[in-house]
Amino acid sequence: MSVSMLASQLLVGLSRGMIYFIVAAGLTLVFGVLRVINFTHGSFYMLGAFIGYSVAAGIGHGSAGFWLMLVLAPLAVAGISLLVERGFLQFVYRREHLIQVLLTYALVLIAGDLVKFFWGSQYRSLSTPPIFTGSFATGSITVPKYNVFLLLVGPLVALGLWLFLSHTRFGKICRATATDREMVDILGVNSTWIFAAVFALGGWLAGLGGALMAPVVNISLGMDANTIIYAFLIVVVGGLGNIWGALISSLIIGVGEAFGALFMPDWAVVLPYIITGVLLILRPSGLLKSVW
């Protein structure tokens, strides 16, 4: 096993972890503020990939189509998530979690049928844009350009969310709403629309993750299943509401999955769950402190 092969596999795991983080960041935001167990988040990720494919295919598989896909697909998913929140979820915020789980799971089934209706059940694929084709070479180690791009996007999203939640008025209102919604209402802030905006932002992040993942995976029905499970694992392991904890746990799971496929292919599917179990035994409250 050469050093270059190990380094390449490490970079693959890190870049895959960045996608998991972008999706999980939206989930931890929604769960932290709204206290909703939202299985539909994975469907938003899948919709981001399919809508991104349609945008890129309609314009052409070039750099312009790719950048426009990254703009339009997350915005479209944010709009869909806002409709879902206003049409369904706002009525179950104060209900028990089982009702929320049943509702969001039903929406997952509906989303799957809608995707099958509009795009069919066959696999779709999207080529890497010309600007990111090829690799960077460092000695005997080659790094695909698109993987480097993903490694840059993830930390930028984490930094942007941290600045938004910690250093903007709206972000501080979101944190206050998560802590004491009644007090926020008394102070004259409409928490209903805070919830709607946060849910739309979570949908935007899921759509962005799907659009970024579109050039490196087969776009198909069911691609939401593993992603939403990993997203929940990342949220719990990282610490509820902790953006940096989600980033760290995403990288751990992404790298574990990559090396598991290399060294233990028979165990690759279950390895992320084993890693999660070990981390929760060592740190039951999460890698970093929960902030909600």
Descriptors:
292 residues, globular, two-stranded antiparallel ribbon, mainly alpha, ABC transporter involved in vitamin B12 uptake, BtuC
Layout of helices and strands, plus pairs?
Blueprint: H1 3-34, H2 40-59, H3 63-87, H4 97-119, E1 135-138, E2 141-144, H5 145-167, H6 169-179, H7 181-186, H8 191-213, H9 223-238, H10 243-263, H11 271-282
Antiparallel strand pairs: 1-2
Question: Please, could you describe this protein's structure?
Answer:
This protein has a single domain (3-282), classed as ABC transporter involved in vitamin B12 uptake, BtuC, CATH 1.10.3470. Helix 1 (3-34) packs antiparallel against helix 10 and helix 3 packs antiparallel against helix 8 (191-213). The chain starts with a helix and ends in a 10-residue tail after the last helix. Helices cover 73% and strands 3% of the residues. The model has no long low-confidence stretch (mean pLDDT 87). The chain has a two-stranded antiparallel sheet. The protein has eleven helices and two strands, in the order H-H-H-H-E-E-H-H-H-H-H-H-H.
Task: Describe, in short, the structure shown.
The protein is an all-alpha fold and 292 residues long.
The computed structural class is: mainly alpha
**Spatial extent as radius of gyration:** 19 Å
Provide the number of structural domains. Answer: 1
User: CATH topology, which one?
Assistant: ABC transporter involved in vitamin B12 uptake, BtuC
- The parts where pLDDT drops under 50 for at least 5 residues are none
Distance between the termini: 44 Å
- What's the architecture, going by CATH? Orthogonal Bundle
How many beta-strand elements?
2
Strand content: under 5%
**Overall pLDDT metric:** 87
* Total helical elements: 11
In which order are the strands of the major sheet placed? 1-2
Q: Strand-and-helix sequence, N→C? A: HHHHEEHHHHHHH
CATH class: Mainly Alpha
Helix content: over 70%
Main sheet makeup:
2 strands, antiparallel
The outline comes out as globular
